[in-house]
Amino acid sequence: MDVNWLLNECSDPYTLERLFYVERYAWLSLSPDMCAVISLDGQFEDVNTHWERTTGISREKLQGAYLIEHIHFDDRERALADMQRLITSDIGSTTFSFRFLCKGGKHVELNWNVIFSPDHNAYFCTVLDPARDADRLAYTDVLTGLKNRLALGKDLPDVLAQAREAGSGAAVLFIDLDGFKSVNDTLGHKAGDTLLVRAARRMKYVIGQQGTAYRPGGDEFVIVLPRADRNVAAGMAGQLVERLRSQYVIEEERVGTGASLGIAMFPADGESAEALMEAADKAMYSVKHCGKNNFAFFASGTDDDPDCPQTC
Q1: Same domain? 227 vs 266
Q2: By three-state DSSP, how is residue 130 classified?
Q3: 129: domain range?
Q4: Arithmetic mean of pLDDT, 179-189
Q5: What is the model's pLDDT at position 307?
Q6: Is the pTM of this model over 0.70?
Q7: E strand or H helix at 84, and its extent?
Q8: Three-state secondary-structure class, residue 272
Q9: Residues 258 and 152 in one domain
Q10: Which of 52, 44, 7, 53 shows the shortest CA–CA distance to 24?
Q11: How many domains does the chain divide into?
């Protein structure tokens, strides 16, 4: 449906409303997954019938309720911030998970794939229950085909446990694409999504069988390298930065981007998944501070030290 054409050419508000309704109804009815349309203020405008199977809440009960009422208190700030970023950061889509309050007071962790539609002024969400839909789709980013945030949260502790048992190291590489927002602003969301897909392909090509790539959401990616030492991590990071700075051709336009990459090493920079992710994130932001399009290892005191860190 060409929404822009309809808005410009169709002067009948009722006709527009009916067309949007039919489009939304078809999507909700045909999807095999739980789906929801959520308003800007967080109210369930419409859902399909699959929710009752997982949550015990009927379609009629869920419609009109507010999402925040069903998000576990400890997950609210992060989940709502991820949704808000779709509007404020011009990110086309995102993936996240949180504990959802079901009938009877039980919380179930659900995996959400969300886009924001300016034309509908609403969020369109597809939702999977990993426990019920125990297949690769529950742990896959819909846009890029990489593993998602939920898979990262499941896999990284296992990698660290294996490294601890073997007495070996491991590396976490946190990647943020430089210039992504500019592509979205100048060429639109479709071009931005295309850039994310192409960047993901480049990452998979570079890392091969040496590690696993994840897209937690937005323009951020994580690479996990099992059995990696500092030299292996630096070599991989250098290849990734070099490959991701090469131009793309998107919609007949040459697009130049780059990548800021932070590295955290196990066990030197942290012994838990959370500590390593935080360290890699800090190292990535130190690269942003120092001019972008490079990589750096985490250094203790990164937050306080304005000097640019060494890359190796």
Answers
A1: yes
A2: coil
A3: 31-135
A4: 82
A5: 46
A6: no
A7: helix 76-88
A8: coil
A9: yes
A10: 44
A11: 2
